[in-house]
Amino acid sequence: MKIPSPITRVVCFFIILGFLAGCASAATPTPTQTPIPVPEGWSLVWHDEFDGEIINLQNWTYDLGGGGWGNGEMQTYTDASENAWLENGLLIIEARKETNASGGFQFTSARLKTQGLQEFQYGRIEARIKVPAGAGLWPAFWMLGSNFSTIGWPDCGEIDIMEYVGKDPTLILGTMHGPGYSGALGLTKWNRQTYNIADEFHSYAIEWDKDQISWFYDDVKYSTYTRNDVEQKTWVFDQPFFIILNLAVGGTLGGLVNPDTVFPAQYLVDYVRVYDINQ
Fold first, then answer.
1. Any idea what the CATH number is for the domain that residue 58 is in?
2. Which of 94, 163, 200, 231 is the catalytic position?
3. Does 4 map to a domain?
4. Of 158, 200, 207, 231, catalytic
5. Residue 207 falls in the annotated catalytic set
């Protein structure tokens, strides 16, 4: 048998080392995303980071149409890509002022919801958002009870995690509505700042269990309502809810559209995350 020369043996040794190094590299892929931070005491159960090319229809569907939406709103909601799309890791909802054939104006926008797709009962529900300012703009991050389509509002319950009043740029609201405490009688807390909230991204969240809901702005708690606060009325927050993101124009809270309000107006959402408390 012919014995390989020392040079041949050295060459083979380095060839084998290169092969093994390549296998090790293939088996250990380099991470492509920064891990999502999880608040202490919580576990991430669902999220949308909006980092794809198109809106994920396994997470979101659309409300469509006009008619005021029970609040005298002025916009028509569409599923058009001009009103809602993904770009640079953000969900962008855009309210647009359109000129119609008669020479007047109409507004289009979008309202995305997880109804029938992703529904949640209890936990921490959080989003990082940049709202648009301007009189007549009314962006919201909120939830409705999953039985909305069968028993209607307000019996289904509503949790407004964040409503922003574009005509009052230093104010956000956190509210809950239910049977006997809806509309103007909803349990609500104003959270006023000393700066224009629309200038930057901020985080908005609730922490919700079977007996209470607390509201947070940039991780600072500013409101809590409990079962006792609804008194003899029905506490309806012990069932699954779905999430809604929308940008309304006008309406009872948005108010009249000021001629100086800039259109198109964009509502930017960095992420929506849902956490369950660790047991």
1. 2.60.120.200
2. 163
3. no
4. 158
5. no
